[in-house]
What we know:
By secondary structure, the chain is mostly beta strands. It is 3% helix and 40% strand. It has 1 helix and 16 strands. Strands 1, 2, 3, 4, 5, 6, 9, 10, 11, 12, 13, 14, 15 and 16 form a 14-stranded antiparallel β-sheet that branches. The protein has a two-stranded antiparallel sheet with strand order 7-8.
Amino acid sequence: xxxxxxxxxxxxxxxxxxxxxxxxxxxxxxxxxxxxxxxxxxxxxxxxxxxxxxxxxxxxxxxxxxxxxxxxxxxxxxxxxxxxxxxxxxxxxxxxxxxxxxxxxxxxxxxxxxxxxxxxxxxxxxxxxxxxxxxxxxxxxxxxxxxxxxxxxxxxxxxxxxxxxxxxxxxxxxxxxxxxxxxxxxxxxxxxxxxxxxxxxxxxxxxxxxxxxxxxxxxxxxxxxxxxxxxxxxxxxxxxxxxxxxxxxxxxxxxxxxxxxxxxxxxxxxxxxxxxxxxxxxxxxxxxxxxxxxxxxxxxxxxxxxxxxxxxxxxxxxxxxxxxxxxxxxxxxxxxxxxxxxx
Length: 343
């Protein structure tokens, strides 16, 4: 499929267990005909995942539109050029972020909270004020310590060595059918309602959504060490977990859809760059998974699942094991942005 069509579908394949799509533009492994209708659920992650500490490329709540966006993902909804799900693999996990200046606050996994939070002496954490946008609330906090383990009340670009981040996203998105208007794409094509077809019709399906409400609950935790000036490497451990539950009515009848998303980062090591070339991870694993199910009243539920295990061994190539609906492929990917090669 040509680059024009790839770009077009990257706009159209918005997530949610309900968004139905054609399998041709996705890297899948033996997907059955029934579950192929759920492929779009693998293309992105829930709204607000971009506010979490995660390996996925997600949409921040501030960038989402409650009127024009029904269930998650936004315009990052796609498999990346390397064939990985959920909007793709974040640049920090692929060696795509450099160290543009000196100091521990720059480079992959560097820095602290994006707010001037209040220090809580009891927990030793800096806490951001909750932020609510489009019905979704984001909560964040962090604990900063020096290499000697001394708790700090704010991130210091020279002495902060360890950052422990915690984030939560929760809320409800209500589908607004009147928002299903066509938008002009990059090449003149129409993008109907950021993922739906004309008049609320799901892509690849004949049903039309009448009403829908999606409850989103997601969270993440990340522990990064080696941030202080003079460190030779950074080590990252963390996890995220998210769930969407959608209920509504359609021309096919009432439906329920669920989607669970998560990832775990274990022992990821990023050398601190000594030159201008961004460093890629040299050790560790990242495990990612998405499962989705849709059920219309009177019909058999349909499900899809995918798991990606990315392993770094010190070379410029990551090993990736992909299991989709029980079918496994062994793949490799040149870092940072090589194509996926599978056997």
